[in-house]
Specification:
The protein is α/β, with parallel strands linked by helices and 756 residues long. Among the domains are: 90 residues, Alpha-Beta Plaits (2-Layer Sandwich); 185 residues, DHBP synthase (Alpha-Beta Complex); 182 residues, Nucleotidyltransferase, domain 5 (2-Layer Sandwich). The protein is built from 23 helices and 29 strands. An eleven-stranded mixed beta sheet has the order 7-6-14-8-9-13-10-12-11-15-16, with helices on both faces. It has a six-stranded mixed beta sheet with strand order 17-20-19-18-21-22, sandwiched between helices. Helix 15 crosses helix 18 and helix 21 crosses helix 22. It is globular, with a radius of gyration of 27 Å. About 1% of the residues have low confidence. Bound molecules: zinc ion (ZN) (2 copies) and fe (iii) ion (FE). Fe (iii) ion binds next to helix 14 and strand 23.
Length: 756
């Protein structure tokens, strides 16, 4: 080196998502560009870089590094520390050093990522040797979490182990300057996985790649139903503009009402839905989630795709196979719904797909790259101009939530029995599993058990602190209580909801917690659901709640709206006109039995559930009397709400319900009643918050709970709270529904165990 020049040396400590995604090769190339010497290596918390050269070059290197995410969207730098250190002599090059800690760390396993722009260009470039290859990928994109069997993340530990890399692929894999350097799933038509078509019995009927694509497209165009094996599991697909095909899919899947998600290219989505610039970015993000978008009216999407909702769920093609299908330009949008039977786990294995989906699909588009972990599509919606998760899985898991953890113990949190996720904690990383589902289905429970074992191995933790719900009968809690742990922390459901908001936002102070939920077991044995808590991560108290009402009928209580309605009627002592009662439940005997159950307190619980109040209101509005799927009627009530209406009823339960009944009898339009109902619920919560602030002086409000997935309510409440000068926190990284409960349990367990 020239001694006249101003030579110095720096040590850079980088934390964030910087491992297993081509960060070190990126640093290597950057060092070369700025003529710097030194080295880079992974350590347990991130990456360490030492660079030496002219000070000006070092400064521009650091500036470039800060913008690394512009080169590679997977890179997320959370912190970058720069330290001056003495320069060394006899250093002539920049190297990537192997580190001992490689493989024993969590940060290197990343999520499954949508096909990147470079791969997409190559996919349709005739001169590229991966032209039209359905498994093209690189360090910036492709499968990760779904194909890893165990750590460290190396090809032999993935489902790619059965494919031997050809020379061309290996050259790229070993070349540090190549985009495919250490891209474990790298493959090409010569050496990698292949696609083929099977009939509904699993017999291969076509295995020429181009013919497979043109045939499947023709099948779909002809109104047939296809099972398509993708990145994280099977989809059931049909032409979304063909109502007969969609109806047929519904009847074969025995799914009578729940909206289907769709896949389409961006220009087509804009035909069917309103897409803002911000929403377009979310659709095109590397995570490529399903995004709920406001319908354009009229549109040509088959009516059976999504009835009784105001939004359509769309995602872009995110795997090369999807791009090949859409490039044929034979249809505008496909229904792409999870390949499973009713509430069972998503299917990802070929033989299981044929066995279980053979009666649904006319044809199977298969491939021979095994999916080791099924990962559902993630669902996102916009709340108050920002994305909020509705279902967190593909693209996001196992990205950790970083939260300052006061405990050194590893933690396992079992989550809720509904919309289950579970959570492992290692240092400051809270790793929440993908959406697992509802535990009452025994196949979901089995899947849950194996998922816990798998993630535990990947993260390499052996938790001695365990957290679960206080519910006496939750399957998740019963399992957790049996684990050999030093400490078991049982957490009230709604406290966990609020704690998840705190953890996500990296806040540990005491807050006012507003919860709008279906059900959660309360510390008094009642079923809570509409709560105002004063909560931090080590304690909570219940400040206020919706007055308890009796709810008869166990599981049926969340399906048949007559049950909460009669409970509310008896509690608040109002009359429901005969014709309304007959409309909601014509069977007089049944109504009398329910009333008797309530009077005699048989199979009846006390509840403050807000979800059931929504059910009752929806029924009074004439929207139906039975939830065929969870929250069907509350969603229908939200869908019709008139956004221009800001009237409210008097904010107490009696006046609210009597007001709705009177309006209905007067012939007021349901859309007006619905908005008045929503606005009144908002007032309930505003009153909770104002009273709590008056008594405690706390000004930060955290909101959570499944009912807040209702954007009409949550957006109005957030706005109302902000107008009242509250600082508002809510779930974004995790769903406000029970998908967030495991994170909250884990954060509370971290605080409680730190005290032990
Ligand atoms: Zn790529
Ligand atoms: Zn190859
Ligand atoms: Fe909940």
């Amino acid at each position: 080196m020239n001694a006249n020049k101003n030579i110095s040396r720096r040590k850079l400590t980088v934390q964030g998502q910087v491992q297993g995604i081509g960060f070190r090769p990126y640093v290597f190339r950057l060092a070369g560009k700025h003529k710097l010497t030194g080295f880079v290596f992974n350590y347990t918390e991130g990456v360490i870089i030492e660079i030496q050269g002219e000070t000006d070059d070092i400064l521009t290197f650091v500036d470039d590094l800060k913008n690394a995410h512009k080169e590679n969207a997977l890179i997320k730098i959370n912190s970058l520390e720069v330290e001056n250190i003495p320069s060394v002599s006899n250093e002539n090059s920049f190297e990537i050093k192997q580190s001992k800690s490689d493989g024993s760390i969590t940060a290197e396993i990343t999520a499954d990522i949508a096909t990147c722009k470079d791969c997409l260009r190559e996919l349709f470039d005739k001169s590229d040797f991966r032209y039209r290859y359905p498994f093209i990928n690189c360090t910036n994109c492709g499968p990760r979490y779904s194909i890893i069997k165990t750590i460290p993340y190396d090809r032999p530990n993935t489902t790619m182990s059965s494919f031997k890399m050809c020379d061309k692929c290996r050259q790229q894999y070993e070349n540090v300057t190549d985009r495919r350097f250490h891209a474990q799933p790298v493959a090409c038509p010569d050496c990698g996985p292949k696609i083929y078509l099977c009939d509904s019995t699993g017999k291969i009927i076509e295995d020429d790649c181009d013919k497979v694509i043109s045939k499947i497209v023709q099948f779909l165009k002809d109104g047939k139903i296809a099972a398509i094996k993708g990145l994280g599991g099977f989809h059931l697909a049909c032409d979304a503009e063909n109502d007969n095909a969609v109806k047929e899919l519904r009847s074969r899947k025995m799914r009578d009402a729940k909206p289907f998600a769709m896949m389409a290219e961006i220009e087509k989505i804009k035909r069917f839905a309103i897409v803002s610039e911000h929403e377009e970015k979310i659709l095109q993000s590397i995570e490529s989630p399903i995004l709920l978008l406001a319908k354009k009216e009229p549109n040509t999407i088959a009516p059976s795709v999504a009835k009784g909702v105001s939004a359509l769920g769309f995602m872009l093609p995110y795997a090369p196979l999807h791009h090949l299908i859409f490039a044929e330009k034979k249809f505008n949008a496909l229904v792409m719904t999870s390949g499973n039977i009713s509430d069972e786990p998503l299917i990802c294995k070929d033989n299981e797909a044929v066995a279980k989906l053979g009666t649904i699909a006319d044809i199977f588009l298969m491939h021979n790259r095994e999916i080791y972990r099924q990962v559902d599509d993630s669902i996102v919606q916009i709340i108050a101009d920002k994305p909020a998760m509705l279902r967190r899985a593909r693209g996001f898991v196992p990205q950790p939530i970083n939260f300052k953890n006061p405990s050194s113990a590893a933690i396992f949190a079992a989550g809720s029995d509904l919309k289950n996720t579970f959570c492992f904690v290692k240092q400051n990383r809270f790793i929440v599993s993908e959406h697992i589902g509802d535990m009452e289905d025994s196949s979901v429970y089995k899947h849950w058990l194996s998922s816990i074992e798998h993630l535990k191995k990947l993260i390499d933790v052996d938790p001695k602190v365990v957290a679960c719900d206080i519910h006496p009968r939750y399957f998740s809690s019963q399992y957790a209580r049996k684990l050999k742990a030093d400490v078991i922390v049982e957490v009230q459901h709604h406290w966990a909801h609020i704690a998840s908001v705190l953890a996500e936002n990296n806040v540990s102070e005491k807050v006012i917690g507003l919860v709008a939920d279906g059900t959660g077991y309360g510390t008094d044995g009642a079923i809570w659901g509409c709560e105002c808590l004063i909560a931090s991560l080590d304690r909570f108290e219940r400040f206020d709640h919706l007055p308890y009402y009796p709810l008869a009928g166990g599981d049926l209580a969340s399906k048949e709206t007559i049950r909460p309605l009669l409970g509310l009627m008896k509690k608040h002592n109002f009359a429901i006109p005969q014709n309304l009662l007959d409309e909601i439940e014509p069977d007089l005997k049944k109504r009398q039995t329910i009333e008797l159950q309530i009077d005699k307190n048989v199979n009846t619980v006390q509840t403050s559930s807000l979800g059931r109040l929504f059910d009752a209101a929806a029924a009074l509005c004439g929207l139906g009397s039975y939830n065929h799927f969870e929250a069907q009627l509350p969603m229908a009530l939200q869908a019709i709400a008139d956004t221009q209406n800001h009237q409210t009823y008097k904010p107490d339960v009696f006046s609210l319900l009597v007001g709705i009944i009177n309006d209905r009898m007067k012939g007021v339009e349901p859309k007006v009643i619905s908005s008045k109902f929503h606005n009144t619920i908002k007032e309930f919560f505003l009153n909770f918050a104002r009273n709590a602030r008056m008594q405690t002086g706390i000004n930060t409000v955290a909101i959570s709970g499944g009912v807040f997935c209702n954007t009409f309510l949550s957006e109005r409440l957030i706005e109302g709270l902000q107008k009242n000068d509250f600082h508002v926190l809510f779930n974004r990284l995790l769903p406000a529904n029970d998908g967030c409960v495991s994170l909250g349990q884990a954060a509370i367990a971290a605080y409680v165990s730190a005290k032990h």
